[in-house]
Recover the amino acids of this structure.
């Protein structure tokens, strides 16, 4: 007798918000959608009806799938979980074996780790199949209520790991093991989870596009080889881009393994690699975008460098370099501001649920809140959260605000307290007397 299939995926609302944005977790940006939209799309992909509920007890259909609004799961992860369910009786909780992609997004996640140092090491997530029985009234009680009734079911997965060199002083941290996989599950409760999800998005988005456009993707791969008959990976990858309608790409720009939305503009000499660009993004001349997700309507100015970052829609990024950062909606970064992204000794600490927590990473920038403005000469320490609507400017004495009208010609002048004064008027530093003979 075949196992009854679930028809609904119940998504329990939590009170989780993501600092510094203050957004409900379901409104967090994951690739080019919100987390809630990704959950609904994945459910419908497999014929499930997504139903948001305030209390688990409202999920009355049996059998069913149940999760919370803070759990991201890729289409591949959900589909493989459903396929595995058909092979075993009773309830189950989705689990992934310990691997590079699981560990990549693991810090600060509220998940259950089992046999972590053993051969069956795995992470168990809040994505359950419930065959029968009642559910608690509170979301907070779901895990304890289902732990005995829904044992872990490991979801098979494949991943490819690419070593990337990092500018670290510590030899053991110079190589980042960058995973590519389309089977991803993450509990989202912190901005770092959004960052790490964006870094995993290339494998997810690429495979989801391939499954949705299988014939077109095979034809594109074949055309890329025929147009550039070579086994050189870079020549092949440069032909594996998805470019939306109305996009304008300068002939000297370089694209590689990226997905560009409608109306995107890429300027002369610009480089976009392994990235997702939303609709109407503008990439200026000689700008570089690597391994990043850029939301719609963003403007990346000339010669800007963006790497391994997530940008919400509508921001203007004009500083020299941004790496490992999360940028909120409608943010403005001045050309002379900077987000520091490295710590030479120890890991970078962040605030999470009222506590200071380690990330296990020495290479991480900060999170900039919605509509924040960072002016010239503003430097942000790694791991910081900049609140929404904050306007940060440089100190007044760092800017020449007053120019005296009677400056003698060819007289060396220096900035001092916001004005110009003759160099000769400043006192020379006194030398300490160490006792000459």
């Amino acid at each position: 007798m075949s196992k009854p299939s679930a028809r609904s995926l119940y998504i329990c609302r939590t009170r989780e918000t993501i600092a510094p944005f203050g957004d409900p977790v379901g409104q967090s940006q994951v690739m080019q959608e919100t987390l809630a939209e990704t959950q609904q799309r994945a459910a419908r992909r497999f014929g499930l009806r997504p139903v948001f509920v305030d209390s688990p007890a409202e999920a009355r259909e049996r059998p069913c799938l149940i999760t919370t609004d803070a759990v991201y799961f890729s289409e591949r992860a959900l589909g493989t979980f459903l396929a595995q369910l058909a092979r075993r009786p009773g309830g189950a909780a989705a689990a992934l074996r310990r691997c590079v992609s699981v560990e990549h997004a693991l810090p600060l996640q509220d998940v259950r780790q089992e046999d972590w140092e053993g051969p069956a090491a795995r992470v168990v997530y809040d994505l359950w199949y419930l065959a029968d029985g009642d559910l608690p009234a509170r979301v907070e009680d779901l895990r304890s209520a289902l732990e005995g009734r829904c044992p872990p079911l490991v979801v098979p997965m494949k991943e490819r790991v690419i070593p990337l060199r990092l500018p670290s002083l510590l030899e053991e941290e110079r190589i980042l093991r960058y995973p590519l996989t389309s089977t991803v599950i993450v509990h989202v409760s912190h901005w770092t989870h959004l960052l790490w999800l964006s870094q995993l998005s290339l494998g997810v988005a690429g495979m989801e596009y391939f499954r949705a456009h299988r014939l077109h993707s095979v034809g594109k791969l074949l055309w890329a080889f025929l147009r550039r008959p070579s086994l050189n990976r870079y020549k092949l990858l440069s032909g594996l881009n998805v470019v939306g309608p109305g996009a304008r790409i300068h002939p000297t720009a370089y694209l590689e393994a990226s997905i560009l939305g409608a109306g995107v503009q890429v300027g002369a000499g610009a480089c976009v690699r392994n990235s997702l660009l939303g609709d109407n993004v503008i990439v200026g001349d000689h700008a570089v975008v690597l391994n990043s997700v850029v939301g719609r309507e963003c403007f990346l100015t000339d010669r800007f460098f963006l790497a391994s970052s997530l940008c919400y829609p509508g921001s203007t990024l004009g500083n020299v370099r941004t790496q490992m950062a999360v940028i909120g909606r409608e943010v403005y970064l001045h050309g002379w501001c900077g987000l520091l992204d490295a710590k030479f000794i120890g890991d970078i600490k962040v605030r999470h649920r009222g506590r200071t927590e380690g990330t296990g990473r020495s290479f991480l920038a900060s999170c900039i809140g919605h509509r924040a403005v960072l002016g010239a000469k503003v430097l942000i320490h790694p791991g910081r959260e900049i609140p929404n609507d904050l306007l940060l400017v440089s100190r007044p004495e760092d800017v020449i605000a007053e120019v005296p009208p009677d400056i003698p010609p060819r007289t060396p002048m220096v900035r001092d307290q916001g004005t110009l004064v003759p160099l000769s008027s400043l006192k020379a530093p006194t030398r300490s007397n160490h006792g000459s003979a």
User: Anything to note?
Assistant: The helical segments are 35-45, 75-85, 100-104, 142-146, 191-212, 214-227, 233-237. The longest helix spans residues 191-212. The CA atoms of residues 71 and 187 lie 5 Å apart. The domain at 8-204 is CATH 3.90.550 (Spore Coat Polysaccharide Biosynthesis Protein SpsA; Chain A).
